Amino acid sequence: MTKSFYGTVLSSPLMLGTAQYPSPDILRDAAKAAQPGVVTVSLRRESAGERAGQAFWTMIQELGVPVLPNTAGCHTVKEAVTTAHMAREVFGTDWVKLEVIGELDTLQPDVFGLVEAARVLTEDGFKVFPYTTEDLVVAERLLAVGCEVLMPWGAPIGSGKGLNNVFGLRALRAHFPDVPLVVDAGIGVPSHAAQALEMGYDAVLINTAVAKAGDPALMAEAFRCAVQAGALARKADPMEERDMAVPSTPVAGKAMLA
Amino acid sequence: MQIVVNDDVHEVSAKTLAALIDELGYGGARIATAMDGSFVPVPQRAQTVLRDGARIEIVAPMQGG
Question: Mind listing the pLDDT tens digit for each residue in A40-56?
Fold first, then answer.
């Protein structure tokens, strides 16, 4: 079943980050190859002379893909809320990928601050995409304050380790069958993305895995194929795992040669 | 009057945030502003009076993950 994200059905379950590419041209090529349903963007200080942000924004608009601004780098509720307000004005969207970072080694979310910031922003009319852990209780709290999407991490941001806690992610999927779920962070290769989609996740958010590949555009295409494969496999209803072998070739009719 | 913009000190004659943006050369740019840690929406910039030492943040679209 294709779920909508705050009423919007995405054209692809691939959300693509726009940071860390070797050049703007390579970012553009990668984004075209990925054909993402969403691109994520951010805000940084602008110099009146360089106006780097203006050129970037023109390029993003030319992609014609919905943008999801983030609050990356925010460590407090106040910072995240203020950044979200600035992003809403600059990008003209009430979507926000809410990050409240709690710890620098793992960049894991401060889930207490996250819930509070999500509450404040939802009351202010934002449609919050919270970057969270796979913790069920935190997920409940986020939904209770108005979030309609959850974005649990697969592994620490930029680590490329894939789905570290498959059991936890599977439990989250099973517990919230109707909530759009996105694996955000930690995906390193296309098979990780396919795995998330096969498990029933509705989308994945990829950045470093594409931007830091030797050939970002080619890797973007690989991820495009991977999410398609994962989504198709989910729809096809994968077989159940077994602990013991079961012959796939029929035994009946086998010649008695022993 | 001295104003701190994105951590750099500027000597400016502007009295309001809207005038400051023009004076610094941001006219027409897609930016968002905050003063002393609080968001100042576009419609409020003209009424936002600067004081000596105010800390202004001016941000724009940037790459993000």
Answer: 999 999 888 888 889 99
Is the separation of the CB atoms in A128 and A146 below 8 Å?
yes
pLDDT in tens, A109-123: 999 999 999 999 999
How close, in Å, is residue A241 to chain B by CA atoms?
35
CB spacing of A85 vs B61 below 8 angstroms? no
Select from A220, A235, A66, A141 the least CA-distant residue to A130. A141
H or E stretch at A87: helix A77-91
Residue with tokens 């194929």: A225
The tokens of A141 are what? 């709290």
Q: Do A70 and B64 touch (CB under 8 A)?
A: yes
The angle formed by the CA atoms of residues A59, A182 and A196, to the nearest 5 degrees, is 110
Residue partners of A31: CB distance under 8 A and separation at least 6: A16, A18, A39, A63, A65, A220
For position A217, what pLDDT does the model report?
98
pTM of the model: 0.92
DSSP letter string over A158-213?
A: T-----S-HHHHHHHHHH-TTS-BEEES---SHHHHHHHHHTT-SEEEESHHHHTS
B56's tokens: 């202004």
Look-up of token digits 């099973």: A174
Candidate from B30, B58, B63 with C-beta closest to A45: B58
